[in-house]
Amino acid sequence: MAVFESDAEKLNKEEAEKTRESRKAAKEAVHKRFRKEYYSDYGLIFMLIFVIAFGLVMLFSTSSYQAALDFDGDTTYYLQHQFWAALAGFAFMIGFSFVPYHWYQKLTVVAYVASGILILVVLSPLGYSANGATRWFRIFGVSVQPAEIAKLGMIIFLAGLTDRLGKLAAQTKFFIAILVTALPICGLVYFITDNLSSAIIIMGIALLMLFIATPGYKRFVIIGAATAAISALMVFIALQTRDDPFNYRFRRIMIWLDPEAYASDYGFQTIQSLYAIGSGGIFGKGLGESMQKRFVPEAQNDMIFSIICEELGLFGAIAVILLFVLIIWRLLIIANYANDRYGALLVVGVLGHLALQVILNIAVVTNTIPNTGITLPFISYGGSAVFFQLIEIGICLSVARSIRVR
Amino acid sequence: MNDRTRDRDNRRTDPRGERRQGRRDDRTEGRETGQAKRTADSGQARRNAGSGQTKRPAESGQNRRPADNGKDPKGQGRRQEEKVSQFTFRMKKKLFVMFLFILLCFAGLTARLVVIARKNGEEYKRQVLSQQEYDSVTIPARRGEIYDRNKTVLAASEKVYNVILDTRNLLRAEQKSEGCEDATIAALVRYFGIDSGKIRDYIRDNPTSQYYILAKKVTYDKMAGFEALMDSTSDTYDEQVKGVWFENEYVRKYPNHSLACDVIGFTSSDGRGQYGLEEYYNTVLSGTPGREYGYLDDNANLERTTIAAQDGNSLVTTIDGNVQTIIEKYLLEFNEEYKDKARIGNGAQNVGCIIMEVDTGNILGMASYPGFDLNDPRNTDYLKGIARVNEKGKLMVDENNRRTWEAITDENLPEITANNELLYQNYNALWKNFCIVDTYEPGSVAKPFTVAAALETGSITGNEIYQCNGMLEVADHEIKCHNTFGDGAVSVTRGIVISCNVAMMYIGQATGSRVFSDFQKTFGFGLKTNIDLAGETRTASLVYTADKMGPSELATNTFGQGFNVDMIEMITGFCSLVNGGSMYEPHVVSKIINSAGATVEHVEPRLLRQTISQTTSDRIVQMCNLVVSDAEGTGRTARPAGYAIGGKTGTAETLPRRNGEYVVSFMCYAPANDPQIAIYVVVDRPNAGTMGQQADAKYATRIVRKILTEVLPYLNIQMTEELSDKEKQELEELRAASVTTQAGVGEEEEEAAAPETTQTETAAEVSPTEFAENSKPVWKSFERDAEGYYINPNNGNKIDPVSGFEYGAPALDEDMDDVPGVDANGAGIFEEIIEEGDYRP
What we know:
Structural class of chain A: mainly alpha
Structural class of chain B: alpha+beta
Strand content of chain B: 15-25%
Largest sheet of chain B: 7 strands, mixed
Radius of gyration of chain A: 26 Å
Distance between the termini of chain B: 100 Å
Radius of gyration of chain B: 47 Å
Oligomer: heterodimer
Number of helices of chain B: 27
Largest sheet of chain A: 3 strands, antiparallel
Shape of chain A: globular
C-alpha cells in the first residue's frame, strides 16, 4: 500500500518538479526579458515625490493667507504656480534621466557662456522685476530666474572642465584658474540680479566640486580659514563702527548679532522667524495652524522652514532635515557608483548645490548666519528654482541609469 | 567591500578594460552601452585614428573622452587623464568626508533649533500671542440724540465715511491690468475732489501702504456713488477702480446751528462731549463701542468674534425750541442795538436769559449772548466782538487796573490765534454758559429774598415803615441808598417797589446776620443747584458765613451787594419765593430714551426743600407785582402786552467800585396772580459808557418785555389784562413780523414811548402805595437835561426822573470793596470760575 502510494507520489512529485521547473524557466525567461539591466534610483524618485508633495502642502499652509490678501481671496495662487512648475519639473526630470549625460560634456563651454548671457537677458526688455530687484525675465508668459539656470550651468561647466583637466586640476595654477572662471558668473549674478545668495552658492558649488576632484585638504583648509578670518574681521569692523554712518553696510551683520535691537525694522524678518521656530514646541501647533505666517515676511519663500517648525514642531523640522540627508545620501551613492568621473562630478555638483542650499537656508532661518535670501530646495515658493533643481536631479538619475546592476 | 575591490581593480592600469569587458560578457549587451558607444564613438574613432594608441578597447563605455578640441598639448597628458578618468577611491573618500561634514552641519543646525525652542520657546510663544492683538478693530457706537421737549432734534449723529487707500492692492491691480491706478485716481478726484497729485505722490512714496486716509467724513451719498463703481452688480461698475475702501464713523450734527449752543455743548473730533449737556451726559450719550477681534481658542486656533456696538441713549430735554428761539432772537436784537455804542464790541459783556417753570424746575429756555455755531465751534468769526481775555482767562486791564474792554476784532485776531493758550481762553469765554458759570453781585433782585427771610422768621411783620435819608450809617460806614437824597418814608412793600436800600438795611438789622445767613443757604446762595449741565460754578466761597458776616456785610448783603451768585441760583431761589416756597432742583433733561425709543429714565421734578411758607410767598408775590404795576415801580417797562407780571429789577455795581460798570438784571414771573414761569435776564455791563449810563435796569426789562410778549401767548397762558389800542397794534405788527421777518429795529422808538402810557394807565388803576410822599422829593427840584434826567448840582450826575436813582454815585464806600472770595486787586468780582474741578457736581 505504502509502496504504491510512494510510487504514485514519486511520479506525482516528478511531475510536479517538472512543471515547477518549466514554470521557473518560463518565469526566468520573462524575467530575463524584462530584467532591469541598469539602475533606476526609485528610492530617490519616491523621496523627491514625497518632498515635493510635502512642500506643496506646506506652501499652501503658509501662503494661503497672503495669497488671499494679495489676489482677491485666491488662496491657491502660490500653490497653483508652484504645482505647475513642480509638475513640469518632474516631467523634465524623468525626461532628462533618459538623456545620456555625456551629451552635456559637449556643452561644457556652451553652458558657461549661456549662463552669462541669460543673466544679461534680465537687462533686456524681457527683464522683469519684483520686490525691487530685477531677477527674472519673461518668455512665453513664464518668468524665469536665470540665476537658477546659472547654477545648473556651473555644475555642467565645472564637471566638464575638471574632468578634462584631470590631474592638472590639482596644480595650483589650474586650481586657481578654475575658481577664477567661476567668478564672472558669480559677479554677474551678484551685480546684475542683485542676488548675493545665488552668487555665494555658485562659488560654493565650485569649491565643493574642486574639493572632490582634487586631492589634498590643505588648500581647502586655507580657504576655510581665510573665509572664517574675513568673516571675523567683518564682524569686528561692524562692531567697531557701530555708531558710524558707514555702519549701514554691515547692517546684516548687526542684525545677525542682535536681531532684537532691529526688531521693528531691518531685523523684523529674522526675529519673527525666530518667534515662529520658538513657539512651535516639540510637535508644533498642527498643520495649517501657524499664527506667524501673517507676520514673517516671505513666509512662503525663504522663511518657509520657520513655519514648518511652528506648525510641525521640532519633530517635523528634524524629519525634513532627515529627508534631505536621505536625498543627499542617495546622491552620494549615485556618485560613488557612477560609471565614470564625469558623471560622478555632475552628481557631486548637484549634491553640493542641494546640501549648500538646505544648510544655508536653515542657518538663515535660525539666525545662525546673517540673513541672505536663500530658498529651501523643493519646498520654498519659486517656480524656476524647483524646475531647475528637478532637472539637476534628472541629470543625476541619468548618471544613475548608467550604473549597471550586477 | 565590493566597492573597494572594484575600486582597487579600477586603479590598476593593466587590462582593466578586458576584465570589465569580460564581466560584461556574462550579461546581455545593454542598451546603455550601445548608447554610450554611439555617443562617444565618432570622436573616439577620430582620436584613436590620430594617436594610434589603442590600448583601450574601442567599445569601452567607461573610457569615453569628450571630443578632443586640440587643447590638450601632448598625448602623454591625455594618457594621464585616461588613467584618472574614473571616480577614484580617493575622490570617494573625499566625497564621504564631505558627506560627514554636511551631516555635521545638519546636526549643528538641529541643535540650534532645539536650543531656540528650549531656551526662548516660552518667551517667543508669548510674543506670538501678543502680536495677535493686531487685528482687533473698534466699531464706533452711535452717539444718542438730544431732543427738545417737542422731540425736535437739537443734536444728532450722522454716519459718515473715511476714504481709505490701499496702495499695495492698487499697485497689484495695476500690475495685472494696466490703467487701474489712473482709473482709481480719476474716480477719487471725481467723487471726493481729492488732489490727484497728492494721491500720486503718496502712491509713489508708499508702495506697500495698506491704510491711508484720503478723505475724512465723506457723506453717504458720495460714498455710495463711489462704492457703486466697485460693485460688480451696479450699472456704473468699473473693474479698474481698486484698492479703496471705507471706514465708518459718526459725526455730530446740530441742525439748528447756534440754537441753545450753551445748553447743548458740542463734541470734540474724537466724539467726547464738551460743555453743556454733551459733556454732562457724555457717558449716557456715547454708548459702548463694539469690537471685532480675534482670540485663540483651546487649540490655539484664531477665532473671530464681533461684539456689536451699543448705541448711546438719547436725551429729551425740557428746552422748548420755540421759546429758545424767541429768547435768542431778542438777545441778538439787544446786541445789534447796543454793539459798538460806547466802545467797540458787543452790546454787553454778557447777556443771559433763563426761563423756568416755577412749579417743576424745568428749564424752558436758557441762552446767553454771544453764541456760536455748534457745528463749527472753532470758527474765529464768533470771537469777534467779545471782550478779549488774557492767557489766564481774565479781562484785559490797563496799568491802573481798569478794564480796557479791548474787544476781539479783525486786527487783533491773528495775534490771538497765534497763541494757543490765549486762543483757548478766549474760546472758553465764548463757549462757557454764562447762566451757570459766571458769578456776579445780584444787586436789588436779592431784596425780595431779604424781605422773605424777615417775614418768614417774624423779624418784621411787613407793616413797618422806615425813614430813608439817602444813606444809613452802619458800623462807621455810610452806606448810601440808590437815591442819595432819601426816599422819605418807606414801607416794606415800597422798599421793594422803589428798591430802597435803607429800608432793606433796617430789615436786615431786624433779621440778624445768623438768620439772614441761614436763609441765604435756604434760598440756595452759595450752593450749587446741581443743574444737569457741565460747568456749574461753586459759589460757596463767594457768600459770607454767619460768623464772618458783620453789620456792614449784613447791610450790603440785604440789597444784593457783597456776595456773588450765578443766574441759575437766583432764578431757582426766586421760583421758590413765588410758588409757595417749594424749591425744585432745576433740570434740563426730562427723559432718557434708548436707541430703540424705550424710556430708560424719567426725570421727575425734584423738590429739594420748603424755603418759605405759602403766606410769605403770597406777600412777596404781591410786592413784586407792584414793582411792575406801580407807578413808582422800577420794573414797569417789563410788562408785556396783555399780561400782569411781577418781578424785581437789579442794578449792581461791579468791582472795583467807581468804575461806573454795572450788571443790570430783571427777574420776574408770569402771570402775576398765578406764577407759572419765571424769567431772569441779566445784562452784564451793557455797552453804554461808564459814566453811570450802564446802571439802568431798563436794559434788562425791555428784553424781558419783548420775550414775554411772544413767549406767554406761545405757552398758552391766558391774557389777564385788556389790551390798549397801542398794544393791539404792537401785537399785530409782531405777528406780521413773525410771519415775514424778525422784529425790525424801527420799533424801538415806539417801545421807548410805551412805558409812559403804561405808567399813566397803571397809576390810574392801581392806587400808589399808601406811603407815597406828600412833598416832592428833593431831586425833583433839580434842573432837567434834554433827555429828561435831573442833574445833581453837586456833582453833575444824572438822576432818574422816576426812581431818583443817581447814576454814577456809588452805593458803597470804597473801603467796602473787599467782598469775600474776590480779589480786590484783580479784575473784579466777575471772575470766571471755571477750573476743571468745578465742572461736575
